[in-house]
Write a structure and sequence with these properties.
about 325 residues; 11 helices; 7-stranded mixed beta sheet; binds pyridoxal-5'-phosphate; alpha/beta; 5-stranded mixed beta sheet
Length: about 325
């Protein structure tokens, strides 16, 4: 494992070899893709961000006039991204992913679990739909869910989150069930130039070495915190799918949420999720009235869970 920052490699006997120009392929990126493909049981392609991965997948698969069925309550930025494609004739309709997707759509987009509502999709109902099914499994990670084994055609991760895991690399990945689909997407990626750089790919490779222990610890700590939040008088709803380090809960209103998010010392008041450091924020600042004003999203890191709870409990006072 080393970083190869070259953009060119010499031709071999006057002909391009495996590597010749890094928009086509880079050895560090390929090494990361092999590791990711093994984790999800498919053919992985790396992209410069989770959002870039979604853009490439949608534009690579669909054409003007097509409709995406998007899971209601999923990551806010995914809907924002897809709505920008309306200008190019792509429609998005939202649906409740705990039931079957609507008919007459050309792509089904699920999130397992949704961020920040933490619902799980009905994968069986989606797999029965004739359209290709994408599962954004960013918050599950392959440690807890391998959607290709449940009938999905593509898995997407913001690798920025748990996979890289240290809040220092921006990356996305699409894992394809079908090799021909991966080849088509790779060609689309090369010609459109939506390619990942080797340095973040190296950080991702390093992060993957500890993925399982990190995620197991985050799940165990989240379980402790969820149980205590559920018994706390200042907390209304607590959302957690029963695994993973991502959870959300509601306090009385926007003012209360602001007091809590700015009142912690161990938990950092910042966006994003999935890193070694715990982060928490009120989501209404980004998502407006799509979320309750008092909703706080917490990504549990690797700190001592007792220290995390003491921090949270003091901020909830
Ligand atoms: N999918 C989910 C579930 C996310 O939480 C995010 C980012 O928060 C993304 C996709 C987008 O990923 P990125 O920020 O790497 O573009």
């Amino acid at each position: 494992m080393s970083v190869d920052r070259s953009t060119i490699w010499p031709y071999e006997n006057g002909e391009p070899g495996t590597y010749y120009y890094s928009r086509y392929a880079n050895p560090t990126v390929v090494e990361a893709e092999q590791a990711l493909g093994a984790l999800d049981g498919g053919h992985a392609l790396l992209f410069p961000s989770g959002t870039g991965a979604a853009t490439a997948l949608v534009l690579g698969l669909l054409q003007p006039g097509d409709t995406i069925a998007l899971a209601e309550g999923c990551y806010f930025g995914t809907g924002v991204n897809f709505r920008t494609f309306e200008r190019w004739g792509l429609r998005t309709v939202e649906f409740d992913q705990t039931g079957p997707p609507p008919e007459d759509v050309q792509l089904v987009w699920l999130e397992a679990p949704s961020n920040p509502f933490l619902t799980m999709p009905d994968l069986e109902a989606a797999a029965a739909h004739p359209a290709p099914v994408v599962v954004d499994a960013t918050a599950s990670t392959p440690v807890h869910l391998r959607p290709l084994e449940h009938g999905a055609d593509y898995v997407l991760h913001s690798a920025t989150k748990y996979l890289a895991g240290h809040h220092d690399a921006l990356l996305g990945v699409v894992v394809c069930k079908d090799e021909a689909a991966a080849t088509a997407l790779r060609t689309f990626r090369t010609v459109t130039g939506i390619v990942a750089a080797p340095d973040p790919a190296f950080l991702l490779l390093r992060g993957l070495k500890t993925l399982e222990v990190r995620v197991q610890r985050q799940t165990a700590s989240a379980a402790v915190i969820v149980e205590r939040l559920r018994g706390h008088p200042a907390v209304e709803t607590v959302r957690w799918p029963g695994f993973g380090g991502l959870l959300s809960f509601d306090v009385a209103d926007g003012d209360a949420a602001r007091r809590v998010e700015t009142g912690t010392r161990v938990i950092v008041n910042a966006t994003s999720l999935g890193g070694v450091t715990s982060v928490m924020e009120s989501r209404a600042r980004w998502e407006g009235d799509r979320v309750p004003a008092g909703l706080l999203r917490l990504s549990v890191g690797l700190e001592d869970p007792e220290a995390l709870w003491a921090d949270l409990a003091s901020a909830l006072h």
